[in-house]
What we know:
CATH superfamily: HUPs
Keywords: ATP-binding, Ligase, Metal-binding, Nucleotide-binding, Queuosine biosynthesis, Signal, Zinc
Cofactor: Zn(2+)
Low-confidence stretches: none
Function: Catalyzes the ATP-dependent conversion of 7-carboxy-7-deazaguanine (CDG) to 7-cyano-7-deazaguanine (preQ(0)).
Largest sheet: 5 strands, parallel
Mean pLDDT: 94
Structural class: alpha/beta
Binding site for Zn(2+): 193, 203, 206, 209
Shape: globular
CATH architecture: 3-Layer(aba) Sandwich
Catalytic activity: 7-carboxy-7-carbaguanine + NH4(+) + 2 ATP = 7-cyano-7-carbaguanine + 2 AMP + 2 diphosphate + 2 H(+)
Amino acid sequence: MTRRAIVLLSGGLDSTTAAAAAQAQGYSLLALTIDYNQRHRRELAAAADVARTLEVARHVVLPVDLRAFGGSALTDEIAVPKGRSDHAMAAEIPVTYVPARNTVFLSLALAWAEAAQAQAIFIGVNALDYSGYPDCRPDFIAAFEAMARLATKAGVGGDWSLTVETPLIALSKAQIVRLGVDLGVDFGRTWSCYDPTPDGLHCGQCDSCLLRRRGFQEAGVPDPTAYA
């Protein structure tokens, strides 16, 4: 029987590496990209490119307009923080946090997983070298997995077992880069920047760009990213 996995694919460095990890484990990939009307919409093109490269069985781009709610620098007219230190990043949950985003994304992935009878959901969350998002933490993932068993017909029926896989959750950004290299990921196809320049470059100064750049530097891997 073919093992299927739903992969939440944003087109970023982390989600692409998580997708490659799922593929390396023998899963047939069903890639889900959420178009939530994010300001860094350039990542949607990256997700499509990555999905083609990985030759996923199916790629769904699902529109869910979180800009209607706002409340984040990624979905509202709020400035994206630039040039922050590690201390500043870790001091509080940043304004780039999108309210309940991973809860929404995982719920949509769960719906597809049940319909497709997939055995796993892969998500590239990271709790170690990241910006303090509460929905990237192990206890949240464990709680969601438990909820999935209670909230689905297949789970309640006892004939379906689903796991939420987080292969990157305890890795530093440098370790993620090294893992991606080992898995053959073409990082030049990925996108991380929260605030792209008008000519389509990574800004180089938002939290995501700073973490990405440092990850390549600390991994000793050439950075293919075009920064402003």
